[in-house]
Design a protein that fits this description.
The chain is globular. By secondary structure, it is of the alpha+beta class. The longest helix has about 35 residues. A hairpin with a 2-residue loop joins β5 and β6. The chain contains 4 helices and 6 strands.
Length: about 160
């Protein structure tokens, strides 16, 4: 009885091992098939560069404290929101941003800003910009863009202001 049990265990171990080997070979074949296929999805390089141009207008407008530089980056229907110090939603139509830049910002030629991320799917995109010492303020902006009539435009902006240390 003991010998039969040991033979059965040995047989199960062999079958299990063969199954695992077959699975590993299938996975390997699948990976080769994936990696050897030509790329069929667009890479969005031109779209990415066009979005960088739009976002650069915003950054330059902030640095120079001139909303006229950033206005072409935004749809006339764009919105801007954040959470105020009181924890409440604040913002509204994009002219609020333009007024704030023209009235409250000062030129900050040494300010630093980085486009941290851009994600594109068809005619929709999102982007993140981190900025330091932009008119004495550090913040993170999140933008949503749409490609309208062949041009990328910002349709919404939300942001988080960071305390300066």
């Amino acid at each position: 009885m003991k010998m039969t049990f040991i033979k059965t265990l040995f047989f199960v171990a062999i079958i299990t091992g063969l199954g695992a080997t077959a699975q590993a070979e299938d996975i390997s074949r699948d990976q080769q098939a994936i990696s050897s296929k030509p790329i069929s999805k667009p890479t969005y390089v031109q779209e990415y560069q066009a979005i960088v141009e739009v976002l650069t207008k915003y950054i330059e407008g902030c640095k120079q404290a001139k909303s006229s530089i950033m206005k072409p980056a935004f749809s006339q229907h764009a919105t801007m929101y954040s959470v105020g110090a009181d924890g409440k939603l604040t913002g509204g139509a994009i002219p609020i941003l333009f007024d704030a830049v023209d009235k409250n910002f000062r030129p900050s030629p040494d300010a630093q800003a980085a486009i941290v991320r851009i994600e594109i799917v068809g005619t929709a995109a999102s982007a993140r910009i981190d900025a330091n010492d932009m008119s004495g303020i550090s913040f993170t902006d999140f933008f949503h863009l749409l490609k309208v009539d062949g041009k990328w435009t910002v349709v919404s902006k939300i942001f988080q202001e960071h305390p300066n240390h």
